[in-house]
Every structure is written in C-alpha cells, then in structure tokens.
Amino acid sequence: MTTLVGYASAFGNVDSYGDVVIRGAFADDVKAINAGRKTVPVLFAHGQKDLDAYVGLVTHAAEDGHGLRVSMELDESPEATKVAQLIKAGALSRMSFGYSVRSRRPGQRAGKPTNELTALDLHEVSVVLVPANPEARLVSIDGQRLPSAPSGVDRAAAEQALVELAKGEADRLERQLRALDKVAAITGSADVERHADAVAARIRKLKFGR
C-alpha cells in the first residue's frame, strides 16, 4: 500500500481566492481524525461526485508552523495506482482540500483585503495539478522525500500519463451523464438535471480546463 505525506493547507499566505488559513483552523478535525472519530478521504482533483476519484484515506493529521500536515494511505485501485505513478514521476506534487467555513474574519495583506479563515470543517484532501495555495504540496511517497522537479524525460512521460488519466475520468463521466440524461427525460426530476449539469461542468473542466 502506498503512503503519502503532505501539506493539504498552508498557513499565513494568501491563496488564489484571497483566503488566508490561520493556524488552529483545523484543531477540532485534527483531534477527531487522530482519535478515529472522523474519516477524511483522499481524492484526485476534488472529484467528490466521482467514486473513482476516491483513492485513499487520511491516517494522521497535525498542524505545524507550515500548515496542515497529513499522512495518507492510497488504496489499490487502478486510479490510486495511476496517481502514485504520477507522483513518483513528478507530474503531481501539489495538494488542496475541500472544506466548509465555521468562522472567518476580515484581514489585510500587502494593503489588500483578505478573508482570514479561523475555523474550518475538513471534508477531503486532494492531490492536484494546480493548487489554490502554492505552498500546499506533497512531501514524500513511501518514505522517500519528493524531488523539487523531475527530469525532462520523466516529465514528458508523466504529462502523457496525466492526460490519459484525465481522459479516462472524462470517459467515465460522459457515461454517467448519458445515464442521467435518460433518467431526467423520463422523470423530469430537477435534482437529476442539476446533477447532470454538475457532471457536464466537470467534463468541460477536464477536457478544456474551464
């Protein structure tokens, strides 16, 4: 089984959404995770509505001076195996997390307004290609510290593998979308139509990056 260590969140810097996570924001979840009272999944690219994107579980969590440090175990699914291969090749090295806000306060950095997130509910952590916070990144895989950058040959192979992974996910989602469209046509359910719209949006993001 593949093990990972990384920072799902970094403290104190401004992310691409103008948010700043404050140390202590995950205090309750850290206690719950380590006591076995809360299970947090590891996803590929926040694929919360795609079961194939669930590739592992968080086994331990801690807040330190840098951010939220998590230990993870990947499962043995083909998707998790592909994610591990991409990490080892250097194509995937960043992290992110899904959450809801319990408390926030206005802040300011470099003369610009920010949202300081002081208490969060952690829903998932993700291995991603482009993070909201550039300081959220993987640290090691199977106990081996990750290099800062892969070699040119490894990068080319990794980028191709990443394209194949995204295409496979898009194909699965398109099959799901066709089934949802059929159900919506028969039932006229607004909930099914909204689900179909969300799947279609994810397909567009995978194919076109938007």
Could you write a compact summary of the structure shown?
By secondary structure, this protein is an alpha+beta fold.
Mean pLDDT: 86
Q: Assembly type of the shown chains?
A: single chain
What characteristic shape results from the CA principal axes?
Answer: globular
Strand content: 25-35%
From the N-terminal CA to the C-terminal CA, the straight-line distance is: 34 Å
Number of DSSP strand runs:
9
Could you explain the architecture of this structure?
With 210 residues, the chain is α+β, with helices and mostly antiparallel strands. The chain folds into 2 domains: 3-150, no CATH class; 155-208. 36% of the residues lie in helices and 34% in strands. It has helices at 27-34, 78-89, 152-187, 190-208; strands at residues 3-10, 19-21, 41-44, 54-63, 67-74, 94-109, 112-128, 138-141, 144-145. Strands 1, 2, 3, 4, 5, 6, 7, 8 and 9 form a 9-stranded mixed beta sheet that branches. A hairpin with a 3-residue loop joins strand 4 and strand 5. Helix 3 (152-187) packs antiparallel against helix 4.
Identify the notable features of this structure and list them briefly.
210 residues; alpha+beta; 2 domains; 9-stranded mixed β-sheet; 4 helices; globular
Which SSEs are present, and which pair or pack?
Elements lengths: L2 E8 L8 E3 L5 H8 L6 E4 L9 E10 L3 E8 L3 H12 L4 E16 L2 E17 L9 E4 L2 E2 L6 H36 L2 H19 L2
Helix pairs in contact: 2-3, 3-4
